[in-house]
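In response to reviewer comment 3 from the previous cycle, which asked for concrete evidence that the modeling workflow produces usable outputs, we include below a single protein chain processed end to end. The sequence was submitted unchanged, and the resulting structure tokens are shown without manual editing.
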Amino acid sequence: MKTTLLHIKNMVCPRCIDAVRNLLEQAGYRPTDVTLGQAQLDQSTPADPVSVAPMLREAGFDVIMGRADQLTEQIKSALVEYLEHLRTARMPLTTSAFLTDRFAATYSHLSKVFSRTANLTIEKYLIRLKIERVKEMLSYNEMTLSEIAEQMRYSSGQHLSNQFRQVTGRSVSEFRRDLMPRRLSLDQLA
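The workflow returned the following structure tokens.
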């Protein structure tokens, strides 16, 4: 099956976009647009996802074949964007409103597909994503816990602290004392 659109798993940042673009170009394909989770190829260089998969897998990516898996990866990418929306929007949308606007589908449908393919609810994935962002902010040691909680839209520093311990098994203080704190890459969250 030849295609001009590849759905790619584990693309979580701008460096991933550059890496996938470079891999495809080195393999002789002409990507016209590469975004988080997708690579659009020039019509003259369609690719068989099965033949492209080993090259991408070697670099830590993977081609997604099924529609449910594709949607799940798109939701994950959208949730990364949602974190930025949360941080910067004056009146941020709820997670469900953000996703239903993005995908023009009911939240119930999105939630069912995500839970089935990721073995994790959207809410739990978002919490893990937020905690990884909090770890990043804590490691910079530039903000207080209350400032981080406010920026990440937690109701209080205590709420953030409780959720941090629940997800990581460690307190914020223990994390800060650690000289080499362990963070997870986004593809390890689900």
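DSSP finds nine helices and four strands in the chain. We consider this sufficient to address the reviewer's concern, and the full set will be provided in the supplementary archive.
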